[in-house]
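Lesson 9: reading folded outputs for more than one chain in a single document. The general rule is that every protein is listed as its sequence immediately followed by its structure tokens, and records are never interleaved. Here is the first one.
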Amino acid sequence: MSLIHTLLHLPARVLYLALFATAIGLLGFGLYLQHVGGLEPCPMCIMQRYAFLGVALVALVGGLHGPGRSGSRVYAALIAVGALGGGGIAARQSWMQLFPPEIPECGPGLEFMLESFPLGEALPMIFRGAGDCVAIDWTFLGLSIANWSLVTFTATFAFALWMLVRREAAR
């Protein structure tokens, strides 16, 4: 059997635990950039972290549970929702970085917005972004953190779709 065939036929439990490890690794790298590299996350970056955390937690539960086919599809659907949410935020931030507003607004931080306003009012403010959401402080292979986040959420969404249509037994 080829390596690709083996990877494609791994049990769902193993695949979900691999996704969990990947998401936690990405979150850890973000914390490294923040605390060691001195990069302060903007409100949109923090929302993307929450989406990665949500994906990681669902993947962990899926990996520990070892679900059957139906359960695996439920976990995959939840992961897809998290990936879509995080990917939407990353796409908006990437767009803002490509086409920055003429007058960048340096609005309040995420914590202040969530404590001071109802969620319905805070979310539009978060998605408008702040001046620091437009800043590109770090790149790798020419892509910003928001770009890499979008790539990762897209791959996570593709993984979730694959898990939804996969015919293999989940165990």
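And here is the second record, again sequence then tokens.
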Amino acid sequence: MGKKLEGNNLWDSSNRTVLPEQMSVISRGERETWQSVKPVLDEHKLEEIEHTLALSLRSHVRVTIVLFDPLEHKLLSGFVTSIHTHSREIKLQWAEEWKWLNVDDIVEAYIV
């Protein structure tokens, strides 16, 4: 990372200087370019995810789930305690907390 130069509000990084006002614009621009569209999963990948979720429910094994988010993918780890096939939702529980998740928001699922 860059280091702050003494006595002024400039940042020095690799022989370039950036004003604080420019940093906020750069950060905002990086966030905008990071935003992505949800990947379209093929049938095989969807079956793999569904199989992993069912295995967690049946065998009570911990599963790690990667949820799509436009800014950054979110990782959740826990146990599948319920599956609603009609609404395509699962209940993921960890410690004393739980959350209902839409299966269509999951981009990856694997057993820990």
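What the second record shows: The longest strand covers residues 74-84.
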